[in-house]
Amino acid sequence: MTPAYVVRRIGFYVLICAITLFFAVPMLWLASAPFDASPGLGVHWPDWTLDNFRETLAHPYAMHSMVNSLLICVTTAVAVTAFAALASYALSRVRLPGRDALLYGLLLLSSVVTGTAAMVPIFVMMFQLGLIDSRFGVALVMTGGLLPAAIFILKDFVDAVPKSYEESARVFGASTGQILRDVVLPVARPGLATILVWAFVNSWGNFLVPFLLIRSIEKQPGAVLLQTFTDEGGSANLSVIPVFSLLFSIPVVVLYLLVNSRYGFRFHGGIKS
Amino acid sequence: MATTTEPAPVQPARVRGPAQDVAGLGISRALGFVAPALLLIGAFLVFPAVWTIYIGITNYRLTGVEAVSPSIVGLSNYTKALNDALFHNALWLTCLFVLGSAVIGQNILGFALAWTMRRARPAVRRTVEALVLLAWILPSTVVAYLWIAFFDRDTGTLNSILGTQGTAWLIDYPMVCLVLFNTWRGTAFSMMLYSSALQAVPPSQLESARMFGASGWQTVRDVVFPHIRGHVLTNTLLISLWTANDFSPFLLTKGGPNHESETVPVYIYNVALQGGELGYSSAISFLLLIANLLVALLYLRLLRRRS
Amino acid sequence: MRRISRLSRLAVLGSAATVLLTGCLGSSDSGSEDTDANRNADAKKVELVIGANSVKGGKNSAGAEFTQDVLIPKFVEAQKAKGVDVTVKFEGDGSDDEVYKQKLALSLSNKAGPDLISVDGIWVGEFAQAGYIKPLTDTVGDTAKVDDWDGWKQIQDSVQQLGMFEGKRYGVPAGTDGRVLYFNKKLFQQAGLPADWQPKSWDEIISAGQALKKLQGVTPIQINAGTAMGEATTMQGILPLLVGTGATINTDGKWLGDSPQIRQVLDFYKQVYGSGLGDPVLQREAKGRDKSFAEFAANKIGILLEGDYFWRSVVEPKDGVAKMADRDTAVGYALIPAGKAGGGVKGQDFVSMSGGGATAINPNTKFPQQAWELLQFMNSAEMVKASLNGAAKITQRSDVNSEVLAGDPMLNFIATKVLPVTQYRPGLAEYPKISAALQQATADVVGGKTTEAAAKSYQTAVEAAAGSKDKVSSN
User: Domain named ABC transmembrane type-1: which ranges (chain B) (predicted)?
Assistant: First the structure.
């Protein structure tokens, strides 16, 4: 062990510690404020209490909004994953005319259109379709917005799956359906799982779409509810917000852990050069 | 599932690239596979987008006289935008934001994490990765609160750590705060993408680089980078686009103080909601789309040239 | 390849449909409009929806609770006695006012939305211009039926302005408020200032501020400024000052541009924030107003211009957001003086600004007659009183005010001393942009620009907002 090596090791660990702190410290608030008798914006050792939890659980809509969130986001995540999987496989394996231009065009569109500017068209369209005040309608809009990026990421993933598997399956006389089910699907599973989490996370935090499209507060998801925890003048209600934030974060974390332990959470990416 | 296309009879559709279609999908079935996604995208993305472009050439507002009878004003929204100092400001801030937090921040930190974590002990690796990922998957409304608390002027965590009580970070250095925030928020994606990319680098080449006494930086530049160039470009493209269109700065600073952190998406929101000028805000959205397109083309050119 | 060409034909069809649909933008003559005001007047089964920006457990929770738990059951019961089976639903939002307004406008432009809608007084004009709401007499179809409602007599004329546009009643006002100068009596004592302070000019405010400046860690004066506080800057800052110069922001349809009065207001800001009497950083913070509340409650702010909301809900000793246990003894209040005695609007010595909301009937309601009945019921003395649920609050009805405010000297002060001298904002579509321009001007001054430069860019912004130079008066 040379001194230089030791210095480098120490430097390495200092760096790791610094990065860890950078990522961990902002989250401390989520660990302290919910349990604090006088929650504020600062992080300090809490004056332990569970009153905030009691207050949050007693809130007339807070807990039910989680159910709405789940309904909307599970639908969105499953739809995004299923449709993106089909599309990305086809786009990866079959050369459809204008494929790349289409992919890039949609990707660009998706990043811009889901914002504020398109809210009038989206509202009017959903209104004409009779999908106002419907959680299903919200999921549809979110799905449309997330699909291009999902296809884009997933196509790279499928591109990376060696074609030899499918070829040899074919040689052994497997039908297309069998190949897809028994060969492609298992290999692509980690990618699908990742997209599932990605879509879920992205729809979980979306505020504007459900707010505009849903009328009854009983159907609003948690992201919208979180914006309503204010008093008459619009000041934040700091006894409910930290607890709700904590509870609201649990589903995404659980989903991630579940997927991570089962399939591993990995991205494949990069346009093959 | 709304698969509207009938499963057409399987044809040996090998128009081009027969070696590609290894599962024997065929063009018609491939179209069937793409159809549901395209239908949804067409209905809920392309259609509103076209409509938005149309609104962009009107003086439409949601209330007032122009709500009843909007008139087509041609390109005047666009000429207005070109002379709008606030729009220039927003564009400039967006460039800073993308450059600072995506191209530099997320990219470099993400790669550094992927590179160092390769050799770290599994326990360390798992902890660090979990934290980084947590920052990525927490809902954005929750994250906004975390960072407002972190930067708070009186009781904020940052001030407690640095002993600088009373420094209003979000007021005095709004863009620095946003860059830090977005780096924190989005690094996970780059980290994951790069760690899978690094697996594609043949270990033997790394080994020989080490034997030749190459420094870490030299190894990255000469051995690793050529292998992951495609990943770097895809990653940079995606995170640049996401960052340029990110709305979360609004949750932290609302574009303030005095427009100092008003990136284009925040500006669009303010124009549309506070000002109610939907025509103008649609025009700006379209300009943002064009800007995105230019950036994407630039990346693609780079990609082509290198490969 | 045939398939592909069929696809592209589909795409052409799709885009043609797009062009057709985009034609719908803003059109309000879809033909199916039911104009008979007596439609469904004799229906035995009626469904009504009340919409408001309030939600249980959130924004204006008490209002939502009252509507859902008291108003609706009582109305249903009363209708049942008449043999009508009414179902009333409440749609509460509880979000930022701007977002709520947008959502409401989206619904109304599609001829949908709740039957009774609650709007801010300053939206009435723009909603009316857009045809989203109509004069009550039009919607109800019977002028006498509307004008003869006995409730109007109980609503002061100045307060009725809240629901009016171009001289017509579009809605029934729903409570109002008033603004005063609050001051911390403890700090005043330490600075040697009187406990019954009542400034008669702006100079007297400044000199009190200078006395307070000697105290350690105290911000002498907080007058909201800048864009971060949004409308709070306009209502608790610029406009009360502006009416103190004798001007109003809109006179005879013309907006006030760069003028001596505007510069006077900006000079006052310059005096406060340029000489360390105010905290300029606070004006730029996203949560600056909340912070100003907390600091006042912590005895760190000497003088604060705020509405009665501050007294009722902020420093309120029990449930306030920034409780002051000694509110009744420690917090003083004074009328806002004109720049100079007699120099205020209409030659007044003292001035104020007020806001508030109104409830209007959705012109596309299926049941206009029943909606009008519900609106009257909602604004009856009994219901208005019940909506307070024992709290003291300034309502739209004078008869209720004189009864419920008797026990609260501060709110009584507002109802009797402030409301007579107060002004309302013009409910015109351009107003939000004018307001934003005003906020920007104060932001510029607080940020260090000269008054002249700020006023100049204000002029440009106002011209852009008003649409033409002719609609701006400047000198």
Answer: 92-299
Within an 8 Å CB–CB cutoff, is residue A237 touching chain C? yes
CB C304 within 8 Å of CB C181: yes
Task: Indicate yes or no: CB of C57 within 8 angstroms of CB of A229.
Answer: yes
Domains of chain A as residue ranges with CATH: 64-263 (1.10.3720.10)
Q: Which residues of C332-369 are buried (b: 16+ CB within 10 A; e: fewer)?
A: bbbbbbbbeeebbbeebbbbbbbbbbbbbbbbbbebbb
Helices (H), C326-423: 327-330, 368-378, 381-388, 398-404, 409-413
Q: A5: which 2 tokens?
A: 């090596």
Tens of pLDDT along chain A (273 residues)?
678 888 888 888 888 888 889 999 889 888 888 888 777 777 777 778 888 888 888 888 888 899 999 999 999 999 999 999 999 988 888 877 778 788 878 877 776 665 666 788 888 889 888 898 999 999 999 999 899 989 988 887 888 777 888 888 888 888 888 888 888 888 888 888 889 988 998 899 888 889 889 988 889 999 888 888 876 555 677 788 889 999 999 999 999 888 888 876 666 544 333
**Cβ-nearest to A256 among B23, B33, B133:** B133
CATH of domain C179-353+427-473: 3.40.190.10
User: Which chains sit next to A, with 3 or more Cβ pairs under 8 A?
Assistant: B, C
Amino acid at A180: L
Contact C285 B276 (CB under 8 A): no
Same topology between domain C45-169+356-424 and domain C179-353+427-473: yes
Is the minimum CB–CB distance between B21 and chain A shorter than 8 Å?
A: yes
CATH superfamily of B76-306: MetI-like (1.10.3720.10)
Q: State the number of CA atoms in the 13 A half-sphere of A5 facing the CB.
A: 2
Q: List the single residue in C56, C103, C309 with the smallest CB-CB distance to A232.
A: C309
Please give, rounded to a whole number of angstroms, the shortest distance from the CA of C247 to a CA of chain B.
24
Can you spell out the DSSP letters for B44-87?
IIIHHHHHHHHHTTB--BSSSHHHHS--B-TTHHHHHHHT-HHH
- To test the contact with chain A by mutation, choose from B21, B28, B41 the residue with the greatest count of A C-beta atoms within 10 A, namely B41
Residue among A175, A165, A152 nearest A85 (CA): A152
Taking the model in full, what pTM does it have? 0.82
With an 8 Å Cβ cutoff, the interface of chain B facing chain C consists of: 15, 27-28, 31, 42, 47, 50-51, 54-55, 58, 60-70, 148, 153-154, 168, 170-172, 252-254, 256-259, 272-276
Tens of pLDDT along chain B (307 residues)? 333 333 333 333 333 333 467 777 778 888 888 899 999 998 888 888 888 888 889 988 888 888 888 888 888 899 988 888 889 999 999 999 999 999 999 999 999 999 888 888 888 888 898 899 899 989 888 898 899 889 887 778 888 888 887 788 888 899 999 999 999 999 998 998 898 888 878 888 888 888 888 887 888 888 888 888 888 888 898 899 889 988 888 888 888 777 889 999 999 888 887 777 888 988 998 888 888 888 888 887 887 775 5
Distance CA B293, CA B303 (A): 15
Write out chain B residues lying below 8 Å of A26, CB-based: 135, 146-147, 149-150, 157, 184
Q: Give every CB contact of residue C352 below 8 A, 6+ residues apart in sequence.
A: C178, C179, C180, C240, C243, C335, C336, C418, C421, C422, C423
Residue range(s) occupied by CATH 1.10.3720.10 in chain B: 76-306
The answer to whether the Cβ–Cβ distance between A62 and C96 falls below 8 Å is no
CATH superfamily of C45-169+356-424: Periplasmic binding protein-like II (3.40.190.10)
Q: Is C284 an 8 Å CB contact of chain B?
A: yes
Which chain A residue's Cα is nearest to B280?
A: A117
Domain ranges, ordered by start, for chain C: 45-169+356-424, 179-353+427-473
